[in-house]
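REQUEST ID: PR-0412
SUBMITTED BY: lab tech R.K.
PRIORITY: routine
TASK: structure prediction, single protein chain
INPUT:
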Amino acid sequence: MPGRLNKPHLRMLFNLHCLLSKGPIMAHAQTFRRHRSAKPKQTFYFILWLTTCLLVSVIFLGPVLWMFFTAFKPLNEIRNWPPQIFPDNWTMDNFNLAWTAMPWPRMFFNSIFLSTTITVLHLFISSLAAYAFAWLRVPYKHVFFMLILATMIVPEQVDLIPRFLMMSSWGLVNSYVPVILLALVSGFTIFLYRQFFQSLPPEYFDAARVDGASVFRIYWSIAMPLAWPATATLFIFTFLGHWNAFLYPLLYLQDPDLFTVQLGLAFFSYTQAGIPIGPMMAASVFVALPPIIVYIMFQRYFMSGVVMTGVKG
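STATUS: complete
OUTPUT:
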């Protein structure tokens, strides 16, 4: 009868079903085998990556941990061989001796004042230049931007003598003025701010221009609040860089009342040769505390600022 399925028809449909379903079944089987074979490989790479990170962390954190624990060791434990990381008898004598040997409060005030002043002025002036390079229509701005980037490959020691002669002829030596003036701008800060400004939506600036906002008002009220992650990142870089600065303060500051903590630490380690290593490590610990506090305060914005500044070139 028409439409009735006999045994040959059923066998043919069964074979067709097997043929059509073979592909998905085999594909799922191959995917399963691929995942099973890739999992040990991925685990190996993860363990290798984790081991590498731990080794790099030990390389960078090892001296810091040794400095910290040595500051709490008595002299007899510092001289032990083989050396041990953790002290058996914790003591604060090294901190008392280091704090009373130098005028650290004055030096801390000088370093905080100098680093904060340089950081604020540096970020303000560099962000102004970066905003101009990012959004203003200036003739040959790309040429000028390339010239600014070219200054990043020139070592600062190249023009060290001309800068000193210039500042000396102006009568600015033995003051904070040359240290601040020579740190007002940098190609790196301008580059990082420009990259972030170019990643912002242009509709914000167009709407502000329609409302009659000036260029500086757009920069101050729109661009800079949106660039807070980049500002936090650059604040960390700039503050830490000038807190640890040694060359320019050594070159231009001659009055001990103007010394920063880095000059004080060098003076303490070079002239106090009779003092054991424990007080030197103690002095290094409390000199390193302010940068650590600054980083902890801004670290939540640090990675986001670095990533977002490279969104658009």
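NOTES: Confidence is low (pLDDT under 50) at residues 16-29.
REVIEWED BY: pending
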